[in-house]
């Protein structure tokens, strides 16, 4: 008989009951150090007191009205995002796929409104991930997630990662935009080089294309900067975020410049729940912490320490581990052994992580981890590595 929950996920045997800081507890009372963080979602860990207080206060005040009305929480959250980023305007939704979907619609609308309706093609990257709507799986172009759902939505093609010549060669009269993850998450923590990012920005300017970055997984402080693209000193036209911005509450944001945003006229797009008071209260509370003095420096410090400790393990256990890549607290451990089997063994040892493409184990802890958590994780990982030798 089919499970009552649609059987689309392969799940663990154990069931999670509660969370506290960087730890999760299952229904048997077993404790796990959570270096998966709901796949880069719980950026401030579990049940952060500031977020809990903000949500509880809002829950007792107002849950939902409609986007028919002005909402103070939306306005203040939008103002803060605009003040602290490249963006002039933002759209609130509930997930990463919706944020990316909005970005794609903005690309089409921008070119339509600027008398170029034939420009609607978007160049993406092979092995990328942008969500699970029909349009976002078409953008990814990955056979694994497209299979059974064809035909794909028209207008997307993919070129190899970090390859400027391939990108140039793919541009046609119909190209409207280039869209990719600044750091590929699902694809196995692949960091676009700053040189590549700058060259793509230049290419977009020369050819009249919009630059769309998907920072759903790598954005909102995970790299030690608010956005990963900041490391290259560029300004994109549209950026999609979700995951970390809600730290566990469903919240997505599509940020854009005025040039693009002004073409999204009243009635052209919308959502019932997007920007609801609960999500806005949490988003504002996340910003309180992430934008506070010293937060980004803490992420950088922890990221540097964690990476160097992981590199030591790679040297010590070359039959198990091959390489560490990534920046800040979005790290990928390339394994020699099967990554998913190792993720399982890590879980059994009490350390949670996530698999990724190219035989990678994604290490995505909450951004609030301390040195003691890193030491604990490294000790658990070492036990797992030793287990392969015997
Ligand atoms: C997770 C993810 C998405 C999709 O987000 P959902 O909230 O699952 O819809 C899109 N892009 C990237 C880079 C992601 O990591």
Describe the structure.
- The chain has 2 domains: 16-34 and 293-387, Aspartate Aminotransferase, domain 1 (Alpha-Beta Complex); 50-290, 3-Layer(aba) Sandwich (Aspartate Aminotransferase, domain 2).
- 38% of the residues lie in helices and 19% in strands.
- It has helices at residues 37-40, 49-59, 72-84, 96-113, 134-140, 143-146, 164-170, 194-207, 258-261, 277-290, 295-316, 339-349, 371-389, and strands at 16-20, 23-26, 31-34, 89-93, 121-125, 156-159, 175-181, 183-184, 190-191, 210-214, 238-241, 252-256, 321-327, 330-335, 351-352, 354-356, 360-363.
- It starts with 15 loop residues before the first strand and ends with a helix.
- Bound molecules: pyridoxal-5'-phosphate (PLP).
Quick description:
The chain has 390 residues and is of the alpha/beta class. It folds into 2 domains: 16-34 and 293-387, Aspartate Aminotransferase, domain 1, CATH 3.90.1150.10; 50-290, Type I PLP-dependent aspartate aminotransferase-like (Major domain) (Aspartate Aminotransferase, domain 2, 3-Layer(aba) Sandwich). Helices cover 38% and strands 19% of the residues.
- Strand percentage lies at 15-25%
User: What's the number of structural domains?
Assistant: 2
Radius of gyration: 21 Å
CATH topology of the largest domain: Aspartate Aminotransferase, domain 2
What are the bound molecules? pyridoxal-5'-phosphate
- Main sheet, how many strands, which sense, barrel? 7 strands, mixed
- Shape designation: globular
CATH architecture of the largest domain: 3-Layer(aba) Sandwich
Order of helices and strands: EEEHHHEHEHHEHEEEHEEEHHHEEHEEEH
End-to-end gap = 40 Å
């Amino acid at each position: 008989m089919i499970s009552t929950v649609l059987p689309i996920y392969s799940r663990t045997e154990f069931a999670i009951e509660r969370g506290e800081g960087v730890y999760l507890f299952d229904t048997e009372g077993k404790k796990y150090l959570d270096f998966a963080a709901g796949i880069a979602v719980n950026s401030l860990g579990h049940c952060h007191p500031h977020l809990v207080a903000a949500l509880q206060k809002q829950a007792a005040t107002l849950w939902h009205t409609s986007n028919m009305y002005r909402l103070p929480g939306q306005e203040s959250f939008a103002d803060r995002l605009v003040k602290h980023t490249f963006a002039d305007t933002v759209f609130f939704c509930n997930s990463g796929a919706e944020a990316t979907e909005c970005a794609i619609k903005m690309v089409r609308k921008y070119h339509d409104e600027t008398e170029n309706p034939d420009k609607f093609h978007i160049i993406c990257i092979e092995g990328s991930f942008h969500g699970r709507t029909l349009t976002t799986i078409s953008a990814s172009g990955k056979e694994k997630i497209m299979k059974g759902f064809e035909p794909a939505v028209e207008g997307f093609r993919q070129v190899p990662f970090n390859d400027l010549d391939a990108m140039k060669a793919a541009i046609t009269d119909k190209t409207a935009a280039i869209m990719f993850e600044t750091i590929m998450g699902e694809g196995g923590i692949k960091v676009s080089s700053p040189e590549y990012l700058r060259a793509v920005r230049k290419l977009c300017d020369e050819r009249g294309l919009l630059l769309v970055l998907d920072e759903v997984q790598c954005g909102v402080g995970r790299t030690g900067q608010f956005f990963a693209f900041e490391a290259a000193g560029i300004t994109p036209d549209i950026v999609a975020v979700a995951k970390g911005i809600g730290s566990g509450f469903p919240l997505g944001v599509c940020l854009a410049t005025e040039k693009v945003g002004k073409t999204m006229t009243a009635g052209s797009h919308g959502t019932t729940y997007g920007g609801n008071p609960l999500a806005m209260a949490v988003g504002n509370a996340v910003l309180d912490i992430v934008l506070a003095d010293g937060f980004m420096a803490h992420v950088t410090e922890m990221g540097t320490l964690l990476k160097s400790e992981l590199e030591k393990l790679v040297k010590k256990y070359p039959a198990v581990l091959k390489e560490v890549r990534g920046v800040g607290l979005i790290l990928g451990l390339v394994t020699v052994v099967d990554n998913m089997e190792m993720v399982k063994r890590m879980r059994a040892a009490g350390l949670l992580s996530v698999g990724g493409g190219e035989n990678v184990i994604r290490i995505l802890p909450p951004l609030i981890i301390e040195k003691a958590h890193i030491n604990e994780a490294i000790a658990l990982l070492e036990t797992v590595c030793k287990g392969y030798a015997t």
